[in-house]
Each structure stands twice: as C-alpha cells, then as structure tokens.
Amino acid sequence: MTAIDFYFSTLSPYTYLAGNRLEELAARHGAQIIYKPLDIMALFPRTGGTPPKDRHPARQEYRLIELERQAKKLGMPMKLQPAHWPTNAAPSSYAIIAAQKEGDGGMGALVQSVLRACWAEEKDIAEDTVIKECLTAAGFDPSLADSGLLVGAETYGQNLEDAVSAGVFGAPFYVTADGGRFWGQDRLDDLDRYLSEQ
DSSP string spanning 113-140? Predict the structure, then answer.
C-alpha cells in the first residue's frame, strides 16, 4: 500500500477547498493518508514564503479573487474573510493528531469539519467546544481534545521539520512515498494521474 503524507494547516483556505477529494483519490488507489497538520505561519519564513497579511496589496486582493473563484467553481460555501481568522491553529491540530493516533473515526471527515467550521461557519477553531463538535461529528470521542497535548505539541513541531525536509512550502501539500510532490488543491488530478502511473 502506498502512502501519501498530507501536509496542511487548519487555517488554510485552499485545504478547505480540497474537500474530500484526497480521501476519494486514496480510496481508488488503495493509498494510506498520513495527516500531518503543521504551523503554516512558521513554515512560510523557513521556505521563502510570506504570510498573507504581509504580502503586497495586489497579492492580497488577488488571493481573495481566486478563493471566491475556486469556491464558486467547486460549489462550496466560503466566507472570504471569516470572523475568526487567523486564530490559533494548534488546538485543532493537536486534536487531529490525537484522533489519528486513536484511529476510530473518519480522519478526512474530521479535517474537513474543522476547516468548514473556520471557512464556512465562521467558528473559532481554537475553541474547545468547536473542536469537540468536530470530533463528535467525525465519529471520535470528543475527550480527545483534552488528551495527548504534549504528544500533540511534539508531533506538530515534528511535522513542520518533516515538511521542510520534504520540500514542502505551502498547504495543502501532498508527498508520496516515492517522493512525488504536489502543491495545492488544484493539483489533486495530477496526483491521481501520478498514482495511476506507478
């Protein structure tokens, strides 16, 4: 079974726009997804990127145009400037890490629930109640939000180091076991083709 390292941020609008397409793709190819949430704001300066708030106004404006365009194309509801963005991504990331370790629910559904809470429902994904709602909706024990915080913090930090080592510089980013790299929700078709050719 091939594996796909899925590097993402729970703050990433483009990860939200990926929806469940990665999970569908992995099911078709019999691939395992390893969910690796990371601190995107720490990744940017280490890999030559710039946080959205520090980009040139023309880039900031175009980012909103592109997000609206992609959301419309995909038929996904989206608040371009959600009330609670940016927020602290660590709590939701720790919960995802704990859930993956637990392994009893739907990981894709959990990640999508957290992203939807931020980008469509304007909820603060740093809040404990929101994280617990997302865990429950995906079939996990909501108490996972309160457990494994030390392991979560260590894994979250290690995911960042792994990302830098793997040549990851944005989110979402997909890295196959043989080193194939694909950046962006609009590259999932390319990842699909790549796996078909292996």
Answer: HHHHHHHTS---TTSHHHHHHHHHHTT-
How would you label 57-93 residue by residue, b for 16+ Cβ within 10 Å and e otherwise? eeeeeeeeeebeebbeeeeeebbeebebbebebbbbb
Q: Report the sign of the C-alpha dihedral through residues 68, 17, 70, 38, in that order.
A: positive
**What CATH number should be reported for the domain holding residue 69?**
3.40.30.10
> Is pLDDT above 80 for 1?
no
- How many CB atoms within 10 Å of residue 197? 7
Q: Edge-to-edge strands of the sheet including 173-176?
A: 32-37, 3-8, 173-176, 181-183
pTM equals 0.96
Res 104 pLDDT > 90: no
Task: State the amino acid at position 154 in one-letter form.
Answer: E
Could you tell me if 168 and 179 are in contact, meaning their C-beta atoms sit under 8 angstroms apart?
Answer: no
Distance set, CA 57 to CA 42, 52, 86 (Å): 21, 10, 18
Q: Range of 36's domain? A: 3-197
Q: Which pLDDT band holds residue 71 (cuts at 50, 70, 90)?
A: very high
